[in-house]
């Protein structure tokens, strides 16, 4: 069956996030009189965030999880902060992310042949604000908030497919996180492409194409369609 739709992860794939998150963590630490390395603290915050998502028994918004994660991290590092207030430093950065340089050319080349949608672990409001600011046009969007579940839970991809009214073989999933954007969609029968921007170790899965920039994606899609 012919591929009709390409689903992109948003953050780390289309929108650059690293510096904004580190800067927010630096402001939180300064606000609490801490001289800890913000990159180290943010790394622990990301790890705790992932643990919270994996352990959810009922849905929580990402904003709620940010507060819970920050509370744990501040306690972990012996910082007596106010997570409910301090988290605003991070929330304020979410809607002002910048597009990577390769997004617009990639979308321009693919748009004539495919529907281009976003499917991302995020609350809906910051994603919509980033789309508005960037001017990036998409044919649809799905967030963990709108679907009520987070990647890499199979329900995320199955609910996306149901909303799109597509079969798995009609969709290609593209993203920078190996587990959530490549391996998990593949387990649901969706073709995937791993965007390995940071030259991480290969997953050793020959059936999952890997690109280092989105400028390589149109050719990968062409080759995939020619052999399907």
How does this model look, in words?
The longest helix is centred in the N-terminal third of the chain and has 18 residues. The chain is globular, with a radius of gyration of 18 Å. The termini are close together. Helix 7 links the parallel strand 4 and strand 5. Helix 1 packs antiparallel against helix 5 and helix 2 crosses helix 3. The protein has a six-stranded parallel beta sheet with strand order 5-4-1-6-7-8. Strands 2-3 form a two-stranded antiparallel ribbon. The mean pLDDT is 94. It is α/β, with parallel strands linked by helices. The chain contains eleven helices and eight strands. It has two domains: 143 residues, HAD superfamily/HAD-like (Rossmann fold, 3-Layer(aba) Sandwich); 77 residues, DNA polymerase, domain 1 (Orthogonal Bundle).
Notable characteristics:
50% helix; 2 domains; 6-stranded parallel sheet; Rossmann fold; alpha/beta; 228 residues; DNA polymerase, domain 1
How is this structure best summarized?
The chain has 228 residues and is α/β, with parallel strands linked by helices. 50% of the residues lie in helices and 13% in strands. The chain has 2 domains: 5-16 and 97-227, HAD superfamily/HAD-like (Rossmann fold, 3-Layer(aba) Sandwich); 18-94, DNA polymerase, domain 1, CATH 1.10.150.
């Amino acid at each position: 069956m012919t591929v009709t739709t390409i689903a992109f992860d948003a953050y780390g794939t289309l929108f650059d996030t690293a510096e904004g998150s580190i800067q927010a963590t630096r402001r939180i630490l300064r606000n609490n009189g801490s001289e800890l390395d913000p990159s180290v603290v943010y790394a622990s915050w990301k790890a705790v965030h992932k643990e919270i998502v994996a352990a959810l028994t009922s849905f929580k918004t990402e904003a709620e999880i940010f507060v819970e994660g920050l509370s744990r991290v501040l306690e972990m590092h012996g910082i007596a902060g106010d997570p409910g207030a301090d988290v605003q430093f991070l929330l304020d950065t979410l809607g002002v992310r910048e597009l990577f340089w390769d997004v617009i050319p990639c979308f321009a080349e693919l748009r004539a042949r495919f529907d281009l949608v976003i499917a991302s672990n995020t609350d809906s409001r910051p994603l919509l604000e980033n789309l508005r600011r960037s001017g990036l046009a998409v044919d649809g969007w799905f967030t963990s908030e709108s679907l009520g579940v987070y990647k890499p839970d199979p329900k995320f991809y199955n609910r996306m497919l149901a909303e799109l009214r597509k079969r798995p073989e009609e969709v290609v999933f593209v993203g920078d996180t190996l587990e959530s954007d490549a391996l998990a969609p593949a387990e649901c029968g969706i073709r995937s492409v791993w965007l390995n921007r940071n030259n991480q170790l290969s997953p050793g899965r020959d059936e999952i194409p890997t690109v280092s920039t989105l400028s390589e994606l149109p050719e990968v899609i062409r080759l995939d369609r020619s052999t399907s």
